[in-house]
Amino acid sequence: MGPFLFPDIDPVALELGPLVIRWYSLAYIGGLLGGWWYCMKLADQAPRVISRKRVDDFLVWAIIGVIIGGRIGHALFYYPGYYMENPFEILEVWKGGMSFHGGMLGVTTAMFIYAWRQGLNVLWLSDLISAAVPMGLFLGRIANFINQELWGRVTDVPWAVIFPRAGQEPRHPSQLYEAALEGIVLFVILLYLTHYKQARLRPGILTGVFLVGYAAARSVVEIVREPEILQATLPFGPTWGQWLSFPMALFGILLIWRAYYKPPIKV
Description:
Radius of gyration: 19 Å
Strand order of the largest sheet: 1-4-5
Shape: globular
Helix content: 55-70%
Structural class: mainly alpha
């Protein structure tokens, strides 16, 4: 068994004259539309604290938050020097390069502003969004695999993959690990809490579990993922992805603790 040579997958899904549609773009579109559909379904279920119309209206805010936050986060968190010298390349979203942590901050900002304008409890909205985010994470990590980016460290495990863009050494397919943990496993956990444990009756539970779950999954996979920033430049040894995930986990634990000590929503 293995190592496996990366399958010859064109990162361009469709090309019609000047119109080029990449798998990366389709992953974002699919994640946003799939998340929107799932949130609309959840809005119809108890507790009905957010109407379908408000969920529908927030889609545009979410798109703007993901794109602006994800792109700026990629530039500031990982390659600030390069983008300081080439600032207009920040606008070239179609070339790839998005930070999850930046996108999360962008959507969080959008949620706070939207909830304030609509007079909503922001946790009602964030719980709904958190339940759906793993769908987008799964598709995004599959797109990372297709693009041969964010690959893993060199390894001799039987399922190792040779990514031509990374050289001829077999590597961990870390994108697929993240698709499984951040996407499938985290979605199933949130699905169980939503539909079988009535977690939405305690605002903040789903948001907290998502934050802790993502931070844990990302931190574990970072062990076998090739770091984007050299560890020698970081204190105490963790990767930059682990550093960014640490405050997420702490805030998630705080939300879970707070939710359990607040009375549940009455339906």
